[in-house]
Amino acid sequence: MALLKVEKLSKSFSGLKAVSNLDMEINKGELIGLIGPNGAGKTTAFNLLTGVYLPTDGTITFQGRKMNGLPPYKVSGHGIGRTFQNIRLFDDLTVLDNVKIAYHQHVSYNTLTGILRLPGYFKGEEEIEEQSLKYLKIFDLDTKADELAKNLPYGQQRRLEIARALATKPSLLLLDEPAAGMNPQETHSLMELIRWIRDEFNLTILLIEHDMPLVMGVCERIYVLDYGMVIASGTPDEIKNNPKVIEAYLGEETI
Ligand SMILES: Nc1ncnc2c1ncn2[C@@H]1O[C@H](COP(=O)(O)OP(=O)(O)OP(=O)(O)O)[C@@H](O)[C@H]1O
């Protein structure tokens, strides 16, 4: 059974079909790319998958459960985590607090324990801090734990967003242009990191990206959207050589 099955998923904005009849099947452990020109519907697809938008039509099935109509916090609770194209950190909180906030929903102490500050509460807080630092270390951000998020360079903010998404303990992680604004060296190490977190955390990853070396280097399969529709899907080699994709997106120079 596919981990994520998307059938005939559509979303219209006052007549504009942003996503149209999208079919997609992703198996556990896969690393999948979603590419296409600007305005093709990629971010809208992510917003549908995470409950930000209600589909106009179609179904989303995740781990055998229908996800249509669930609000974002419930989708996240079921194990779909994401990052955003426009970084959405809490700018005026520290790097550590940005991760702690995400981790909070997974620690088991009840409200009364929290209100009364019983020993279980402190154990919970300690555990959150320890785990959050662990995530920061993975992304080489542990030495920045006490800095304000807004003071980090752009590439580090992007890594912090991924760390925060991981702290929600997803089984499916959606990354929206993780390499945007990164230099080639940062992009290369991000590519290795994405592979590593997939293996280390048993993740399935779907990523939107315009950086073709990253997509082609890291993804096992790729879906290509154009005007909201899938125009091709396949391995990086199949996609690179697909005339429709070359015409709509990649351009002749990539052949
Ligand atoms: N909330 C909205 N209201 C109206 N139109 C929208 C909304 N969100 C997206 N659109 C439109 O839907 C289409 C798809 O947009 P979307 O952002 O999903 O594309 P994209 O493939 O992610 O593009 P990019 O690569 O530039 O991020 C575009 O024409 C966009 O203007």
TrEMBL record:
PROSITE patterns referenced in this protein's UniProt entry, alphabetically: ABC_TRANSPORTER_2
Ranges annotated as spanning the membrane: none
CDD domains xref list: ABC_Mj1267_LivG_branched
Entry GO terms, CC: plasma membrane
Gene Ontology molecular functions: ATP binding; ATP hydrolysis activity; L-isoleucine transmembrane transporter activity; L-phenylalanine transmembrane transporter activity; L-valine transmembrane transporter activity
Matches recorded under InterPro entries: AAA+_ATPase (IPR003593), ABC_AA/LPS_Transport (IPR051120), ABC_transporter-like_ATP-bd (IPR003439), BCA_ABC_TP_C (IPR032823), P-loop_NTPase (IPR027417)
One GO biological process term: L-isoleucine import across plasma membrane
Keyword annotations of the record: ATP-binding, Nucleotide-binding, Transport
Top-rank lineage group of the source organism: Bacteria
Protein name: High-affinity branched-chain amino acid ABC transporter ATP-binding protein LivG
Species: Desulfuribacillus stibiiarsenatis
Gene name for this UniProt entry: livG
